[in-house]
C-alpha cells in the first residue's frame, strides 16, 4: 500500500469516527476534527492519490497560476481549469450588472433542482465566455482579489516608524534564501494578511502558510491549512505543494524531501458522506512519478507542457458538489 493514500484514508476514517457535527458558512454542514498531520516522502513517488482519479492538469495549472502571481480566472479558463469559477461567478450574479435568473444559493440549488441546474449551467457558460473574450468584463468579474497569487508574489507591509507601505515578493525571496542561507528557519511564505478578514479576497486563503526547511541534501516543505475540505480540497493541496516542492528543489539544487501537512479544521461536508465512504472502500495502487523539463531552471519559467505525470493508474473519479 502506498503511504500517501494510506494516510489520507486513515484521516477520513478518523473524521467519520471522531468528528463532531458543525454548521458552516455555506449552510451545508460538516463533520469536523481539530488538528491533523500527514507526512509525504517524495522519494516514494508523487503523492497524487490513487483511490480516485485526481486531475493533475488542474492541480498544475492552479499551482502555476499561484506561482505567476495571478488572481484572475482567465488564465485558468484558458487552461480549461474551472475550479475557481464559482467564487468569481458569485461576484457577477450578486452585482447590479447581472440581469439573468435568480442565482441565490446556486451551489446547493444546482445539486437539488434539475431545472435550476440547467439555468445555472447556461449562466455559467455565458460567464466563462465573457471572461475569456471581454477584457473589461474579465477585469471586473474574473478578478478574485488578494488570493494566493497576490499574497505569494506581491505582499505588503507597513513600516511602523514611517507608516510607509512597501511591497515584497515573498516566494522569490524564499527561493533566494534557500540558495544563500539554507540553515534559516525563516524561509516562510504567508497567504494570510488582515485584508483577508475585510473581504478583499474572493475566498480567504485556506492554505495560509508554508515553510521551506533544508535537511542535508533535501528540501522539505511544511504547509498549514486553517480550513480543509477533506474530499475535494485536500487531494489537490497535497499534490499542489508536492509540485511546488519539486520545482523549488530543482531550482535550488536539492532533492525533494518531505511535504508535511498541518490541518486545523479538517472536515467532511454532509453532502459528501457517500462519496467519502466509496473512496474508503478502495484499495490504493502504486504512486506515479513526476517528470520536469530539466531545461527550465527557474520556478517562474515553467509552463504546463514542462510538467508530466507518468505511471498514474487510479480508480475512477468521484464527483461531489462544491460548497461555495
UniProtKB/TrEMBL annotation:
<keyword id="KW-0963">Cytoplasm</keyword>
<dbReference type="InterPro" id="IPR045097">
    <property type="entry name" value="Thymidate_synth/dCMP_Mease"/>
</dbReference>
<dbReference type="Pfam" id="PF00303">
    <property type="entry name" value="Thymidylat_synt"/>
</dbReference>
<feature type="binding site">
    <location>
        <begin position="185"/>
        <end position="186"/>
    </location>
    <ligand>
        <name>dUMP</name>
    </ligand>
</feature>
<feature type="binding site">
    <location>
        <position position="323"/>
    </location>
    <ligand>
        <name>(6R)-5,10-methylene-5,6,7,8-tetrahydrofolate</name>
    </ligand>
</feature>
<protein>
    <recommendedName>
        <fullName>Thymidylate synthase</fullName>
        <ecNumber>2.1.1.45</ecNumber>
    </recommendedName>
</protein>
<keyword id="KW-0489">Methyltransferase</keyword>
<feature type="binding site" description="in other chain">
    <location>
        <position position="25"/>
    </location>
    <ligand>
        <name>dUMP</name>
    </ligand>
</feature>
<comment type="function">
    <text>Catalyzes the reductive methylation of 2'-deoxyuridine-5'-monophosphate (dUMP) to 2'-deoxythymidine-5'-monophosphate (dTMP) while utilizing 5,10-methylenetetrahydrofolate (mTHF) as the methyl donor and reductant in the reaction, yielding dihydrofolate (DHF) as a by-product. This enzymatic reaction provides an intracellular de novo source of dTMP, an essential precursor for DNA biosynthesis.</text>
</comment>
<dbReference type="GO" id="GO:0004799">
    <property type="term" value="F:thymidylate synthase activity"/>
</dbReference>
<feature type="active site" description="Nucleophile">
    <location>
        <position position="206"/>
    </location>
</feature>
<dbReference type="GO" id="GO:0032259">
    <property type="term" value="P:methylation"/>
</dbReference>
<dbReference type="InterPro" id="IPR036926">
    <property type="entry name" value="Thymidate_synth/dCMP_Mease_sf"/>
</dbReference>
<feature type="binding site" description="in other chain">
    <location>
        <position position="237"/>
    </location>
    <ligand>
        <name>dUMP</name>
    </ligand>
</feature>
<keyword id="KW-0808">Transferase</keyword>
<feature type="binding site" description="in other chain">
    <location>
        <begin position="226"/>
        <end position="229"/>
    </location>
    <ligand>
        <name>dUMP</name>
    </ligand>
</feature>
<feature type="binding site" description="in other chain">
    <location>
        <begin position="267"/>
        <end position="269"/>
    </location>
    <ligand>
        <name>dUMP</name>
    </ligand>
</feature>
<comment type="pathway">
    <text>Pyrimidine metabolism; dTTP biosynthesis.</text>
</comment>
<feature type="binding site">
    <location>
        <position position="229"/>
    </location>
    <ligand>
        <name>(6R)-5,10-methylene-5,6,7,8-tetrahydrofolate</name>
    </ligand>
</feature>
<keyword id="KW-0545">Nucleotide biosynthesis</keyword>
<dbReference type="InterPro" id="IPR023451">
    <property type="entry name" value="Thymidate_synth/dCMP_Mease_dom"/>
</dbReference>
<dbReference type="InterPro" id="IPR000398">
    <property type="entry name" value="Thymidylate_synthase"/>
</dbReference>
<comment type="subunit">
    <text>Homodimer.</text>
</comment>
<comment type="similarity">
    <text>Belongs to the thymidylate synthase family. Bacterial-type ThyA subfamily.</text>
</comment>
<feature type="domain" description="Thymidylate synthase/dCMP hydroxymethylase">
    <location>
        <begin position="6"/>
        <end position="324"/>
    </location>
</feature>
Amino acid at each position: 500500500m502506498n503511504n500517501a493514500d494510506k494516510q489520507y484514508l486513515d484521516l477520513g476514517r478518523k473524521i467519520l469516527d471522531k468528528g463532531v457535527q458543525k454548521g458552516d458558512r455555506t449552510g451545508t454542514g460538516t463533520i469536523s476534527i481539530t488538528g491533523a498531520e500527514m507526512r509525504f516522502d517524495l522519494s516514494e513517488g508523487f503523492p497524487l492519490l490513487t483511490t480516485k482519479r485526481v486531475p493533475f492538469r488542474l492541480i498544475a495549472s492552479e499551482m502555476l497560476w499561484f506561482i505567476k502571481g495571478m488572481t484572475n480566472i482567465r488564465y485558468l479558463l484558458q487552461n480549461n481549469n474551472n475550479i475557481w469559477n464559482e467564487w468569481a461567478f458569485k461576484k457577477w450574479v450578486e452585482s447590479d450588472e447581472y440581469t439573468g435568473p435568480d442565482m441565490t444559493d446556486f451551489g446547493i440549488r444546482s445539486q437539488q433542482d434539475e431545472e435550476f441546474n440547467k439555468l445555472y449551467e447556461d449562466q455559467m457558460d455565458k460567464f466563462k465566455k465573457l471572461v475569456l473574450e471581454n477584457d473589461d468584463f474579465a477585469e471586473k468579474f474574473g478578478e478574485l482579489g488578494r488570493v494566493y497569487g497576490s499574497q505569494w508574489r506581491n505582499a505588503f507591509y507597513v513600516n511602523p516608524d514611517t507608516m510607509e507601505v512597501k511591497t515584497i515578493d515573498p516566494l522569490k525571496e524564499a527561493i533566494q534564501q534557500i540558495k544563500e542561507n539554507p540553515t534559516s528557519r525563516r524561509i516562510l511564505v504567508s497567504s494570510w494578511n488582515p485584508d483577508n478578514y475585510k473581504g478583499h479576497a474572493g475566498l480567504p486563503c485556506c492554505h495560509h502558510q508554508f515553510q521551506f526547511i533544508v535537511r542535508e541534501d533535501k528540501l522539505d516543505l511544511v504547509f498549514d491549512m486553517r480550513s480543509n475540505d477533506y474530499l475535494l480540497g485536500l487531494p489537490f493541496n497535497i499534490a499542489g505543494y508536492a509540485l511546488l516542492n519539486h520545482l523549488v528543489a530543482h531550482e535550488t539544487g536539492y532533492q525533494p524531501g518531505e511535504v508535511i501537512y498541518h490541518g486545523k479544521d479538517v472536515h467532511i461536508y454532509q453532502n459528501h458522506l457517500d462519496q467519502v465512504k466509496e473512496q474508503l472502500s478502495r484499495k490504493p495502487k502504486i504512486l506515479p512519478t513526476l517528470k520536469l523539463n530539466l531545461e527550465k531552471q527557474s520556478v517562474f519559467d515553467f509552463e504546463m507542457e514542462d510538467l508530466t505525470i507518468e505511471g498514474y493508474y487510479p480508480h475512477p473519479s468521484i464527483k461531489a458538489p462544491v460548497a461555495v
